[in-house]
Amino acid sequence: xxxxxxxxxxxxxxxxxxxxxxxxxxxxxxxxxxxxxxxxxxxxxxxxxxxxxxxxxxxxxxxxxxxxxxxxxxxxxxxxxxxxxxxxxxxxxxxxxxxxxxxxxxxxxxxxxxxxxxxxxxxxxxxxxxxxxxxxxxxxxxxxxxxxxxxxxxxxxxxxxxxxxxxxxxxxxxxxxxxxxxxxxxxxxxxxxxxxxxxxxxxxxxxxxxxxxxxxxxxxxxxxxxxxxxxxxxxxxxxxxxxxxxxxxxxxxxxxxxxxxxxxxxxxxxxxxxxxxxxxxxxxxxxxxxxxxxxxxxxxxxxxxxxxxxxxxxxxxxxxxxxxxxxxxxxxxxxxxx
Length: 338
Description:
By secondary structure, this protein is α/β, with parallel strands linked by helices. The chain has two domains: about 5-160, ph1033 like fold; about 195-320, Trna Endonuclease, Chain: A, domain 1 (3-Layer(aba) Sandwich), CATH 3.40.1350.10. It contains twelve helices and 13 strands. The strands form three sheets. A six-stranded mixed sheet has the order 2-5-4-3-1-6. Helix 2 (about 45-55) crosses helix 3, helix 7 packs across helix 11 and helix 9 runs parallel beside helix 10 (about 285-290). It is elongated, with a radius of gyration of 23 Å.
């Protein structure tokens, strides 16, 4: 039996993420349409309803929106698998649709009231996927079929080897990343760091980055470091305090509360902590970091931001790992509101 695989997004800023991961729903917006079950079950009927609800929408957008909403209501079936790339934790979460019942719940989410119940099956770091798979899951559509890389997504879900894919040259990949949206740039840089600076070499890179930012650093040698990878003096990040102790993790997975507590336990009076990871931090970890010890957290996306900000000052050996070039793009899509 063939598994039907879909992709879905949680809004441009990930606003619907709690609905997905905490409430067990897949969700779409277009709240002005009201209850979708009241729209006759055809694409032309959805187009007519959208034109009435959104009179200022472009003619090209209406059929695209209608197709997504129609498929969400009428083609998404119980047992289908839906992959959701979260901007919150940089994981791709796999859901199984629980039943065929559509729900209109503006009381639960005024912005994303169109819901389908689903159970979370598995979460996989973005870094485990190929550039081709990430490109497909990064579709500009809110809800869409996954076809080209379905075998890879399903293999990750099942925990089986991914079917072999043709090798690609790195230079085109680097060029594509320079022109890509922010999420693709983050994926590119984080993947290169994870591949080439796994383990303690990442601590040396973070030490170098802090140096170019104006800190004075002392990186611990490889081996047992007592939980501290870098000792830092100076205050470019505005942390206020004396010595800063830095823990660096090259994992792309989520960092939890225990790891942040371990760093907090190594801080003495007047010392500050900095935790740097290629992954993300869960809510408990962030709550602990806001405690009296005052630990600064830098996750993968923020690290990429600092790299881009200070890229020209980085040593050539590091810039060669993730070659980038600056480009200028419109602040908003052409035609949006103009």
